[in-house]
């Protein structure tokens, strides 16, 4: 479990294929404090995707990425040098500063526009209808692992506002129109839909 508050930005420094489908990625981290928080087996949100640490070094960690994860996330576009939002797993008793994020991405969305408004940036994201039904104005959403509030919604499109701190301390500063971001909708909406479906069928 995470709360969508990115701790720092890492960088992909090596990618290897493990068999025909899976990928092994080594991510460099310029923070001794961050690395001191993780051990082999720790969960880390990497641009919003919950991954497990399988190896740890003085300046990096290594993780395995399955084909199922690659198919549904923007991790399939990773190349050497790709910047990655990083957040360690939420610890019991820690403040929940963002919202509850599982690291289970629903889909990827394409950046439709980025507009600077005063000191902030407004980003519009296109997404498919199967995901947009869970997105409501003023609801919480995680984009590339960052907890944000939905500003507006129209069919297949929604917008978020990125304050200067968020822009300067996440990978959004490197994004351009046409890039893809990982989308995780508010889990409450998904559970509510499942409960209502059971109620409809009298279960």
TrEMBL record:
The keyword ATP-binding does not apply. The keyword Repeat applies. Residues 1-99, 100-196 form the Lumazine-binding domain. Keywords: Repeat, Riboflavin biosynthesis, Transferase. Pathway: Cofactor biosynthesis; riboflavin biosynthesis; riboflavin from 2-hydroxy-3-oxobutyl phosphate and 5-amino-6-(D-ribitylamino)uracil: step 2/2. It is an enzyme of class 2 (transferase). Catalyzes the dismutation of two molecules of 6,7-dimethyl-8-ribityllumazine, resulting in the formation of riboflavin and 5-amino-6-(D-ribitylamino)uracil. This is Riboflavin synthase. The gene is ribE.
